[in-house]
Amino acid sequence: MKNKSIRQLKKGEFFRLSAGESAPVWVRGEYIREAKKYSTYKYDDVNHERLLSGNHKVVVDFIF
């Protein structure tokens, strides 16, 4: 599995926070300048938002 930082992902790219098969799939959203973080949300629940710093490592190479 390949790891990248949130900053390296494009808007709308899928990722997981951990390498497990049961880990939920997240989507990278907009950069929020006021918070200096990236908005991310769960693929299954767009109301479940989480702000992550640009250096946060995530898993991007997985079968969805």
Beta percentage is 35-45%
Mean pLDDT: 95
* Structural class category: mainly beta
Low-confidence stretches: none
Largest sheet: 4 strands, antiparallel
Radius of gyration: 11 Å
Give the fraction of residues assigned to helices.
Answer: under 10%
State the helix count.
0
Shape: globular
**In what order do the strands lie side by side in the largest sheet?**
2-3-4-5
Distance between the termini: 13 Å
Q: How many DSSP E strands? A: 6
Sequence of secondary-structure elements: EEEEEE
What this model shows, in words?
- The chain has no helices and 6 strands.
- It has 64 residues and is mostly beta strands.
- The strands form 2 sheets. Strands 2-3-4-5 form a 4-stranded antiparallel beta sheet, with no helix packed on it. A two-stranded antiparallel sheet has the order 1-6.
- Strand 3 and strand 4 (37-42) form a beta hairpin.
- It is globular.
- The mean pLDDT is 95.
Features:
mainly beta; two-stranded antiparallel sheet; 0% helix
Question: Quick summary of this structure?
Answer:
This protein has strands at residues 3-5, 14-16, 25-32, 37-42, 49-52, 57-59. The chain has 64 residues and is mostly beta strands.
